Amino acid sequence: MLIIDNARLHYGAAEALRGVSLEAEPATITCILGRNGVGKTSLMRAIVGHHPLTSGTIRFNGEVFARRPAYDRARAGIGFVPQGREIFPLLTVRENLQTGYAGLPRSERHIPDTVFELFPVLKDMLNRRGGDLSGGQQQQLAIGRALVTRPKLLALDEPTEGIQPSIIKDIGRALTFLRDEFGMAILLVEQYLDFCRGLADSVSILDRGVVVHQGVAEDLDRPEVRAHLTV
Amino acid sequence: MTVTRSIAALFAVLAVLLSPSMATAQDSDVALRQAIAGLGAEKGYARLREAINVVAQTGDPRAARVLGALTEGDVYRRADDGAVVIVSGRGQQLTLHDPVTGEAIGTAPKSALDKVRVNNSVRRSVRAALGGLTLAAGDPDIRMTAARTLIATPDPDSLAAIEKAISDEEDDAVRDALENARAGAILFSGADPETRIAAIETIRNMGGQQALSLLARMPASPDQGVLQAAEDAAASVQKRLQYWGLGQNIWYGVSLGSVLLLAAIGLAITFGVMGVINMAHGEMVMLGAYTTFTVQEVMRTSFPGLLDWSLPIALPLAFLVAGSVGFALERGVIRFLYGRPLETLLATWGVSLVLQQSVRTLFGPSNREVSNPSFMSGAFQLGEISVTWNRLYIVVFALVVFAVLLYAINRTSLGLRMRAVTQNRRMAAAMGIRTPWVDALTFALGSGIAGIAGVALSQIDNVSPNLGQGYIIDSFMVVVFGGVGNLWGTLIAALSLGVANKFLEPFAGAVLGKILVLVFIILFIQRRPRGLFALKGRAVDA
Amino acid sequence: MTGAEVAASGKPAGHREDTILYLDGVSVSFDGFKAINNLSFLLREGEMRAVIGPNGAGKTTMMDIITGKTRPDEGEVFFNGNVDLTRHDEPAIATMGIGRKFQKPTVFEGHTVDDNLALALSGVRSIFASLAHRRTIEEERRIVEILETTRLSHLRHTSAASLSHGQKQWLEIGMLLAQSPKVLLVDEPVAGMTDAETAETARLLRDIARSHSVVVVEHDMGFVRDLGVKVTCLHEGSVLSEGTIDHVSADPKVIEVYLGR
Amino acid sequence: MITGYFLRQGLNRWIIASLVVILAIGILVPAANLLLPAGHPLHVPSYIVALFGKYLCYALLALSLDLVWGYVGILSLGHGAFFALGGYAMGMYLMRQIGTRGVYGDPTLPDFMVFLNWKELPWFWSGFDQFWFAAIMVMLAPGLLAFVFGWFAFRSRVTGVYLSIITQAMTYALMLAFFRNDMGFGGNNGLTDFKDILGYSIQSDQTRAALFLSSAVALALGVLLVGALGASRYGKLMVAVRDAEDRTRFLGYRPEFVKLFAFTASAVMAGIAGALYVPQVGIINPGEFAPANSIEIVIWTAVGGRGTIIGPIIGAILVNAGKSAFTGLFPEYWLFALGALFIAVTLFLPKGIVGTAMHGWDALQRLRAARRHEEGRHDGPAASQPEAAE
Amino acid sequence: QEDTIKVGILHSLSGTMAISETTLKDAMLMLIEAQNEKGGLLGKKLEAVVVDPASDWPLFAEKARQLIEQDEVAAVFGCWTSVSRKSVLPVFSELNSILFYPVQYEGEESERNVFYTGAAPNQQAIPAVDYLMNEEGVERWVLEGTDYVYPRTTNKILEQYLLDKGVAAEDIIVNYTPFGFSDWQTEVARIKEFGSAGKKTAVVSTVNGDANVPFYKELANQGIKAEDIPVVAFSVGEEELAGIDTGPLVGHLAAWNYFQSVETEANASFIEEWHAFTGDEARVTNDPMEAHYIGFNMWIKAAEAAGTTDPDAVIAALPGIEVPNLTGGISKMLPNHHITKPVLIGEIQEDGQFEVVSETDDLVPGDAWSDFLPESKKLKSDWVDLKCGNYDTEAEKCIAETAMAEPATEAAKSN
Ligand SMILES: Nc1ncnc2c1ncn2[C@@H]1O[C@H](COP(=O)(O)OP(=O)(O)OP(=O)(O)O)[C@@H](O)[C@H]1O
Ligand SMILES: Nc1ncnc2c1ncn2[C@@H]1O[C@H](COP(=O)(O)OP(=O)(O)OP(=O)(O)O)[C@@H](O)[C@H]1O
Ligand SMILES: NC(N)=O
Ligand SMILES: [Mg+2]
Ligand SMILES: [Mg+2]
């Protein structure tokens, strides 16, 4: 579904991705791991179109995302939960969710039930401004908001950050559900190893802008794989 | 309608009204001609006024023709024989008419004619000389005008005429006015104290500045009761006037506020919502005003009948013109500057210079005339407040624009997208919002609104290349005072600054008043550093 | 006294004089929503405390109150037993010795990592002193040390704006260290860190706690367990449970609202 | 002591170079005007001296704005007020110097007071017959206004556009006030018809040259001051306040004082610029308070590049020279040229002329360093030799 | 190249004053073109040097300097506002050049290098007030002005004049508004109220520039008719009226020294030439244009008389020069550098023109120093015999010279 081939990305002169290749399949959860500053977020930015690649290609459903703007990619079915939540601070929770209507046909412009089932707190706070929410509530809102767009591929950048344990479990269950029920392709950047291991169908480990390991979730138990993640 | 025209119309009516009954008298014809000849003989306005009185005193209704023509500036003296003629036509060769019958009596070159010059005092004499007679006119409006004139110039000698008119009058409003006129005349007559006290009561009920002036001017009476009544009446009128004065200040304030609102509301979008320090905002207003001018020019030259429709026609056009310029500006310049809000100041300043100079080159540097359509001309009286139609329309218009915009921003999906985009452009794009399109539309909307504000402002202000410069600072003050990004704040700020200004003006004068308002804004921002309707809480810091 | 009892009585155990932080009966509401509700919380000198609680429980708001960012509607907030913090503003509170790491990392993006740390270093705070100030050898040593601790040495002269999220987290921790306050308020320090780094951070905090008082807010229970200190669980703006990690994590109410089954 | 302070703050070579250039201009231009005969190819006509003297004052003004805008992030839209106040203080001194040479020959009262029937000098005019007093007021009046204004505004945490707009309100209010004849500052005609300064005729070429040199020295001192402040720890603090004011509070800093110091210092600089400007242009009037003038200062700074020291200077000189040239060369179309210049700078030189140049320079250096590094690694020393030869 | 004589044109083409001044630039270009067709001056062609001082007062000084020093113009025609004139004065005296200033102004000035072809207060304000008093019987006065020097001074002179004429102090109100003032509701309502007290009331308006349009619009809308409360303005001419729907304003007045509607042959051909030059039949002419017309012709004549354009020679030759004005008279340059002009009072007509309702029998000589201000009563300007712009007739000495002879003493300084 999503095929990244030899992606390179620069911030000015600094190179953040040095030829990353990766695939995400429908109905699979692909977990991307790596230490701080190795390029995980940069990879996500490249996928959703927030930062152009210097070279390499990204293909989604056979379509080449050369310099397609972010909104086209979102409309093509990429949902995004960014690192740092990026809630619209002055929009209410409801309005934050409604921003996801942009790419939907009129008939589908409603908030899917899964969102409130997953994050009941959002229902209570529909009229509060997004920026007023607590950190964890914002994170929940960010995930909910991505789901409103009915994505085919969901890209999550450290979605569990700042979220209470019980809801982390719910998120895990939800991701499995989305994978199994909707056949969604899920790309998950995570630091939280246990969470990853429980969910992932496959894992990729990044280090200094390159993929240093690719395999199944169980690989994470292998010490030489884990070594990529230690300091 | 103009002064001269209305007087002329008055005479026309009068002439038609009275002519059948008095058509025959041959000898009066001679007297009239003699009197009219006097109009041409004399030099100086004082003599002319006497001559007018002589003409009027003939009592001949045909005098109306020549007097009407006189106020229109159509009466000339033939240089060779000194005959008084009425002329018509334009250019060098003029058609002459007999001043009594109005029949054409040939033509003459302009150089062979001397104009009988009239000025305001002459026109006033004409009006006064024949004022009383119009009380019998068929049109109640004309009778009303006559009655008003009588109130303003109380004359005991006209009492009898007024009494007669009251008994004949069928229109209630006119009769009331006549009764006031009678009371006024009584004040100045030697009537007995009771009658005068009753008259004072009537005048007191009439109220207003005019009542006050009548009471003040009325000849001193030896009677204590009359004096007391007059004093009380004056005091009570004064008091009422004070309340009305309060109301008047509020109205003026609201009306100034609505002008500020109109000027600022587009900026509330481009600056308030989008964060662009839009120095070219004033020029968008100016474009709207010039669009109005252009529309009126076209109407004037090609469709004079539609002149009254020029504003409704100009509104959408101004929106389109300013909106498209805004659209182009956003696509051409602003879009490269998101995330660098301060740089927008530099670029939009440049744009504003270019727009100003373009308009100057295209339309010339001086003021262009935009007239009020008839439905926006003049005023009506609300108690003691005279409410001008153009201001009233502007207040209503400003509120409508505000309401529509409020709805558009807060209740429509486009509005939601606009707000999302301006809060976090990248994330909005990741949600599938076509950010470039929304950005351009938002800026075009703000500019378009500024454009239609220009249509309204063209009704009360200069239409010149500098128009925008006059509003830009006030607009920023209003938006900031109300709280950036808050439309309600903009509304309240505009109205309250308007009212504050108008309450200060009578005491402090316009200049000091304005200074005080500015100082007030500075102090107020210390109390509320994010404006009147500051958003609070984390959301703001985020 | 158990945590539950504390919450029920609404009175913190112990005397104000013995504490470094003392909150009693504190409430704050935003547009009618009670974010902190009659909260009582105390921290003894030299103590490290872990604070947990569901999202929206009021943990960050509590820190806001202590650091002077938010004024409580009612209640007492004391530092060092006798300093009423509600009477002071943020810079005053910071200079008294209360340092803070924010939940969302906030650093000076226009500055390099080095300058960020230099500005945070304790010492010069007045304008005129800073006009004449030159970096001392001691300060240089501290900065190098902190750079090593936070593993940012290689990024020393990088602009903070171009750090990754995790690197900013670390930089902010470094700034807190540089400030060397009496009390450290640390809001979710390990969010976005790898497990190894998390363990490292726990070690670092334990280290610091030997000479400082610390309040740590975290959702990572493994990390909290690693810290090995008393835990307070907040819920809906007040204390739900307090005690050892085992006690708190076994508390059914905590499991119900926070840990989940 | 002061020099020691400046020296201790490591001034970079750009600043030193610009100091040299400014002082060289300050000496050479008047010299070329006074010493070379009119026909000489290098002779600088008096007209140019006057013109450039004015630009130097504008440059100092832009630099003063840069201190608050570039470093502390305060976008002052009212800096013209400080400039004008300094100018008025100087103008009042110059007015008093006219003595009996006014048109009415009144020894104390300026002409405008005589014909508006003032009987005596208002209290706030006293002392201005002394140069030292006027010199102090040149700094005190704007400094005090900035201090009081800033004290309230910064303590109330008025920031961003709110601050910008109230500075604009301030200068606007002052403009209206100074327009009023009752204020005693000559109404909209302002103060003019000056005769001499410190006993020297204001119209003589020598005085002009001295004023020119003074302006250059003042500008150089300004550069030195801003450079030293910028390089000090206080400079870093200013930038920190600019980027994250709230965060500095939690580190124990008082951003309001950081701002207040910069704002006041900047106002004093602006006042000095105004004081030097007035004798060179021969008039000070309330138009200088006009909000548009203050916006123009911002424009100069932005064109040159804010946050750089040389940028605002270059911006001020360039924009004003452009204005001088264009208004003469194509009087009907110059606004198009100027407007286009502003738009072009924002679009193509996003950090201003100097800012972009410096950015490019840095990038080039880094690229070179990187290339050298790479080549050194891969190809050995041989490949890097041509580099070294450059 | 060498055989042209350059003439500087110093009028704002942008900024707030462009509205008024651009026309004057065009008028000057037309006059220069016409003169060249007549063979130029002293056998050389004239060449106009146009600059744009952009309504920026210090820029006026800079541009003046540029014109004189760099372009070496023989004379400059320019300025509108008094502040712009004040700003360039030192430049003209320092560089010893000539300025022709074409706009009505507050007086109280007479410079050797400046020739004032616009009206002094005694050539505009006083006759207008006389007219209202005598012809309209006005007893109450509203002096309405923009808050700056020209209106302030003019009103001061008028107030004194009215008081001298026996008008009671409470029958005069004076009010000032800022430049560009646009909300006249309160002020117009006040005028209306002031005028409803029974005594005949008039408004004397020294409102300047942009504020006029909204002022007149408000007057019209609040129904203040000329017959009830006439407004006589000193700064509203044909050019200003072009921006207003004059229908409701008919009968309001203006006092000038020229109106486009004046019927003389000279004027007719001037207007014709103007329309031909601008290619626009709708372009109006106005008083300051006529002032430039007079000034330019005077300069030409003086230069011809002197046989050179050298400033000193021309300055010496100018007083006494007589040229026809456009209203049928012969204007003369006086020794005080002001000129003689007729004073015309006109009423606004529906077509935006004025109809003359009164005019002085003789030309009125411009008075540099008002007789109605205590300090200036005693002053006299005479550049021919006395060689002095501010001669004190009481002390019988030239103030400028005294000052020159004994430069400010310590005593004078510290007084
Ligand atoms: N300014 C505000 N306006 C409205 N509600 C607010 C505001 N600030 C905080 N809140 C609410 O107060 C509650 C407490 O927030 P707080 O940030 O303290 O939670 P927290 O315990 O830190 O949560 P998390 O673990 O998710 O960070 C939340 O429900 C939040 O929505
Ligand atoms: N905006 C930026 N400008 C310049 N450099 C950047 C920028 N963002 C990230 N970098 C650099 O690029 C590298 C990769 O950053 P990225 O954010 O992708 O890391 P990450 O793997 O997501 O780390 P983390 O786990 O901390 O979130 C880092 O070294 C960082 O310093
Ligand atoms: N001289 C004038 N009208 O300013
Ligand atoms: Mg990341
Ligand atoms: Mg929190």
UniProtKB/TrEMBL annotation, chain A:
Pfam families, per database record: ABC_tran
Molecular function per GO: ATP binding
Keywords in alphabetical order: Amino-acid transport, ATP-binding, Nucleotide-binding, Transport
CDD domains: ABC_TM1139_LivF_branched
Nucleotide-binding is among the record's keywords: yes
Domain called ABC transporter: residue spans: 2-231
Family: Belongs to the ABC transporter superfamily.
Protein's UniProt name: Urea ABC transporter ATP-binding subunit UrtE
TrEMBL record, chain B:
Segments passing through the bilayer: 250-277, 309-329, 341-359, 392-409, 476-500, 506-525
Entries under InterPro entries matching the protein: ABC_transp_permease, ABC_UrtB_bac, BCAA_transport_permease, PBS_lyase_HEAT
Subcellular location: Cell membrane
Cleaved signal peptide residues: 1-25
Membrane topology of this protein: Multi-pass membrane protein
SMART domains: EZ_HEAT
Domain of life, per lineage: Bacteria
Pfam families per the UniProt record, alphabetical: BPD_transp_2
UniProt keyword list: Amino-acid transport, Cell membrane, Membrane, Signal, Transmembrane, Transmembrane helix, Transport
Assigned protein family: Belongs to the binding-protein-dependent transport system permease family. LivHM subfamily.
Family annotation (PANTHER family): ABC TRANSPORTER PERMEASE PROTEIN (PTHR11795:SF447), BRANCHED-CHAIN AMINO ACID TRANSPORT SYSTEM PERMEASE PROTEIN LIVH (PTHR11795)
Protein's UniProt name: Urea ABC transporter permease subunit UrtB
Lineage start: Bacteria, Pseudomonadati, Pseudomonadota, Alphaproteobacteria, Hyphomicrobiales
Automatic annotation (TrEMBL), chain C:
Keywords associated with the record: ATP-binding, Nucleotide-binding, Transport
PROSITE patterns: ABC_TRANSPORTER_2
Single GO MF annotation: ATP binding
UniProt cross-references to InterPro entries, sorted A to Z: ABC_AA/LPS_Transport, ABC_transporter-like_ATP-bd, ABC_transptr_urea_ATP-bd_UrtD, BCA_ABC_TP_C
Pfam families named among the record's database cross-references: ABC_tran, BCA_ABC_TP_C
UniProt domain ABC transporter: residue ranges: 21-261
Residues annotated as transmembrane: none
UniProt protein name: Urea ABC transporter ATP-binding protein UrtD
Source organism of the structure: Pseudohoeflea coraliihabitans
Designated gene of the protein: urtD
From TrEMBL, chain D:
Pfam families attached to this UniProt entry: BPD_transp_2
Membrane topology: Multi-pass membrane protein
Annotated InterPro entries: ABC_transp_permease (IPR001851), ABC_transptr_urea_perm_UrtC (IPR017778), LivM-like (IPR043428)
This protein's UniProt keywords: Cell membrane, Membrane, Transmembrane, Transmembrane helix
Transmembrane segment boundaries: 12-36, 42-61, 68-90, 131-154, 161-179, 209-232, 257-277, 297-321, 333-354
Localization per Swiss-Prot or TrEMBL: Cell membrane
Record keyword Cell membrane present: yes
Identification of the protein by name: Urea ABC transporter permease subunit UrtC
Native organism: Pseudohoeflea coraliihabitans
Lineage start: Bacteria, Pseudomonadati, Pseudomonadota, Alphaproteobacteria, Hyphomicrobiales
Record gene name: urtC
